[in-house]
Design goal:
Elements (H helix, E strand, L loop, with lengths): L1 H33 L2 E3 L11 E8 L1 E8 L2 E3 L10 H13 L2 E5 L15 E7 L4 E9 L5 E6 L5 E5 H7 L21 E6 L3 E10 L2 E7 L6 E2 L2 H13 L4 E5 L13 E5 L3 E9 L2 E6 L4 E6 L1 H7 L3 H4 L12 E8 L2 E9 L5 E7 L3 E4 L1 H14 L2 E4 L3 H6 L6 E7 L4 E8 L4 E6 L2 E7 H18 L1
Antiparallel strand pairs: 1-5, 2-3, 2-6, 3-4, 5-9, 6-7, 7-8, 8-9, 10-11, 10-15, 11-12, 12-13, 14-18, 15-16, 16-17, 17-18, 19-20, 19-24, 20-21, 21-22, 23-27, 24-25, 25-26, 26-27
Organism: Cellulosilyticum lentocellum (strain ATCC 49066 / DSM 5427 / NCIMB 11756 / RHM5) (Clostridium lentocellum)
Protein name: DUF4340 domain-containing protein
Length: 452
């Protein structure tokens, strides 16, 4: 009997032990399933108050503080931030939901979360905060890993949500160049590498606004209308791309010695520094903050060369402003006198040494246009100082007297078979097309012969 009882007891002990082993194994398996990945949709931002301070650390730290309805950077108070863009970014963060949760992670670095991670900390009005760290993207590029100090574990969020978190705070900056209205621009300066400056000024010429190139040549020269229109359009279309940073002792963005400085009127200045890819670094006036801009604007502004800008017509003659034009060459003198009738009617005479030729208004306008287009600048002299020293006699002289009795005299000095040297009020800088001048005097001679 005792033997049977012992056997039963032994069986009980064996079965009980087996049961405990089974239970222990099942328990560990259950815990093992709880420690791991879990598909869970959970909002990760639990900060309830209104966000009034943002800290974004990505190498350097960017701080934004809310003042009334404006976001300000206490380190760069001259920056303007797009309130709506920041607001939409914060709303997007509040909506982020996890796709997966990974618990009891011993090494977060395997998910790209370490000291180099992007860290975003939000503060509300009560100074409550929540911090997010953004890790790496999954191999299938569908999810980003991230953590928050208010929850345990690593969370996987949708790719687009991760991209929202990674948004560069510099893109929130509104780069307003505050370019003057085009009609209010009276002066433009283009300083190239601190070597030379193109100074353009809006002047009145017989009641008409005309832009002139000042100081580069010995005299001022009108700028071609289409060139000026293109330049103003380039200035109008300039836009800031993004905020780049601030000038420091280690990084000046090439702005200590800028490639180009664009000045408008008095007090507005934009400096262009070094280029990087399709962007160029710029700064306004002497501010420390630096922006980027598409380098296309720089390329367009630096493409303007003095000789290509100026009008090639030496005599730009408005019909209503002329009193007399006298043209002299070795073969004779041609005198064009304009007489103005009532109500704008014009009676015109060409008085020559041989005969008088009466022209109507249309014929007069056509002749004046021919004279203007015939004295055509073809090239800039390579050594104008040498030509200036040699007092050479002019072969052709053209004197234009305006209604206000202002007089301009140009002289054409033989140079070679293709050019005359142009001398205006004693100054030589350019050569004019000889063939055009020859044809002009042939036209005048032919008119006189026809009259005969």
């Amino acid at each position: 009997m005792k033997k049977k009882m012992g056997i039963v007891l032994l069986l009980g002990i064996i079965l009980g032990g087996a049961g405990m082993i089974y239970y222990s194994t099942q328990s560990k398996m259950t815990m093992g399933q709880a420690i791991g990945k879990e598909e869970v949709a959970q909002k990760l931002c639990t900060l309830e108050g209104n966000v009034v301070r943002i800290e974004i650390k990505r190498g350097e730290t960017t701080i934004l503080e809310k003042e009334h309805q404006n976001w300000e950077n206490p380190e760069h108070m001259d920056l303007t931030y797009d309130w709506q863009a920041v607001h939409e970014w914060l709303v997007a963060i509040r909506k982020i939901e996890s796709k997966e949760a990974i618990y009891k992670v011993e090494d977060e670095a395997q998910y790209g979360i370490d000291d180099k991670s992007l860290i975003i900390t939000l503060y509300d009005e009560m100074n409550h905060s929540q911090t997010f760290k953004v890790g790496k993207i999954t191999e299938d590029k569908q999810l980003f890993y991230m953590t928050t100090d208010r929850m345990e574990g690593v969370y996987a969020v949708a790719y687009n949500d991760g991209q929202q978190l990674l948004r560069n705070p510099n893109t929130f900056v509104v780069g307003n160049l505050k370019i003057p209205e085009l009609e209010n621009i009276e002066q433009i300066k283009l300083t190239h590498n601190e070597e030379y400056t193109l100074s353009l000024k809006k002047l009145q010429d017989l009641g008409v606004d005309k832009w002139s190139l000042m100081d580069y040549y010995k005299g001022s020269h009108f700028i071609q209308t289409e060139v000026m229109e293109q330049l103003l359009e380039t200035i109008k279309e300039m836009k800031i791309d993004s905020f780049a940073g601030a000038i420091t002792e280690k990084e000046d963005y090439g702005l200590t010695k800028p490639q180009l400085i664009l000045g408008l009127n008095q007090g507005w200045e934009l400096s262009f520094g070094k280029t990087e890819g399709d962007l160029v670094y710029v700064r306004m006036n002497d501010q420390s903050v630096v922006y980027t801009m598409k380098k296309e604007a720089l390329e367009q502004l630096t493409s303007y060369k003095p000789f290509d800008m100026i009008s090639r017509e030496v005599l730009e003659l408005p019909l209503s402003g002329i009193k007399q034009i006298v043209l002299e060459n070795p073969q004779g003198t041609y005198n064009l006198t304009l007489e103005y009738g009532e109500a704008g009617q014009v009676a015109t005479e060409i008085v020559s040494q041989l005969d008088e030729i009466a022209l109507n208004k249309e014929q007069t306008a056509e002749l004046i246009s021919t004279i203007s287009s015939s004295i055509w600048i073809e090239a800039a002299l390579q050594n104008p100082e040498i030509e200036q020293k040699e007092e050479r006699k002019a072969e052709i002289t053209i004197t234009c007297t305006l209604q206000n009795n202002q007089e301009e005299t140009i002289e054409l000095i033989p140079y070679d078979i293709n050019y005359y040297i142009l001398r205006v009020d004693g100054v030589t800088e350019f050569a004019v097309n000889k063939d055009k001048v020859t044809k002009l005097f042939s036209t005048l001679s032919h008119m006189k012969k026809e009259k005969k």
